[in-house]
Structure formats: C-alpha cells, structure tokens
Known about the structure:
Largest sheet: 6 strands, antiparallel
Radius of gyration: 20 Å
Number of strands: 8
Number of domains: 2
Strand content: 15-25%
CATH topology of the largest domain: Beta-Lactamase
CATH superfamily of the largest domain: GAF domain
Helix content: 40-55%
Structural class: alpha+beta
Strand order of the largest sheet: 5-4-3-8-7-6
Amino acid sequence: MQALERAMSITGLLSEAENGGMSISDLSKKSGLALGTMHRILKGMEKQRMVEQDPQTKLYRLGPIWLEYGLRLYDSMDYITKIRPELERLSREVKESVYLSRPSGHEAIVMERIDSDDNPIRINDPLGIRIPLHIGAANKAMLADMPPGEAAEIVGQLVPRDKQQAFHDELAVIRQAGYAESHGERTPGTSSVAAAVRDGLGTLVGAVSIGFISYDLTDERLAYLSEKVKEAGARISRNLGAG
C-alpha cells in the first residue's frame, strides 16, 4: 500500500509539472523521499509506462498509460457519441467555453473543455483540474443533484459550520431552478452557469457548464445562458438513457 501511495503522489506531482517535466531531485524534494527511494519507484513506474524520462533533458513526465486509461474512461461513459456532440452544439449556440465536470470524492474534475471559435476571450480552466465541490456553478449543480445525505456529508466537510445552513438554502434554490450560477467564486470577473447530468439509472454522472466573462453581463444574457445550459444538461441526460 505504501508503494502505491508513493507512486500516486509522484503521479500527482508530475501532473502539475511545467516546462516538460521534473527532475528526480525536484521530485525527491517535493515528495520528501530520499533520492535512492525515488529512483527505485520511478524505475518501477517506467516499466508500467506510468512515467517516462526524456533522453535529452532527463526530466520525468507522465507516461502514455494515463492517456490510454483516459480514453477508455471516455469510451465507457459513451463520451464520443453521446456527450461531446452536445458540448460542441452548446458552445456553438452560446459562443462561449463549455465544460464537462465529474464528481470525485469531495472534489470535481474538469473532464473536457470546448472553446468557441467565435469568441477569442476564454476562461482557461485546464483539463484535469480538481476543484472542491462547494465552489463554482458546476460543482453546486452536482451537489444539489446528489442524495441529501451524501450532499450533507460533503457540505459538512467543506463548508464552515456557521455558513452551512445558508449553503443548504442555496442548494435548495438550485434544485428548484434546475441550474446553478456562480459569479467570481474562483476568478474575479468571471461567471458560470451549470446543470447536472444523469444516466439511465438516474445516477448523477457530472455537470455541463458555460464559463464566461461577466464585466458586460446583462440579465437577459444570463437568463439565456441559464436556459441553454439546462437544455444541454437535459439532452445529455436523455442521450445517456435518463427519462
């Protein structure tokens, strides 16, 4: 178990690396592992294609196995045929960046981003970024769609006690409206609207969201985007078999 935890810790560090990867000494410092231990772990990870080393720079980066797993995940969730076309359609309609997020524990992962060719101003949330579930429209839309007990447990872990009732009240409003909105929670001057997505069993699988700059946002534009994201969430859910 310790070896697995160390390997996943290294994977996390490399997933955030810039400039082509990380040296073994940097990995050792950031992980707190001795150089000899780090060397043994990296060699084992190389055999499994979890990491690879650039022959010129000697920097380590994530290996191809993660891309293969990601493609299998997309395939298993009917991504190509049932989800991506709807994301592309929504982006064309609203001329904004569109995102697909999925819950993972007390966080959500941005799985996909479709940018609009008609809008050069974009909010660049990188793929794979993990965001606490109480922050942002997409995450609140997912929380509001979860079973009450599950949502309450997550809120209890993430939201300060004196703010939990107000947060639950906000989730109730989201359930009633069928969508969530967020303004400047993560990045000042940006907003988003989102709707939950369910599969054929009625299980929450994620959320579709629209991200946009809010400096010239009008009530009419916000209402339009909110309605469009609700429609997209409903279409994707139907494509996945939801009633």
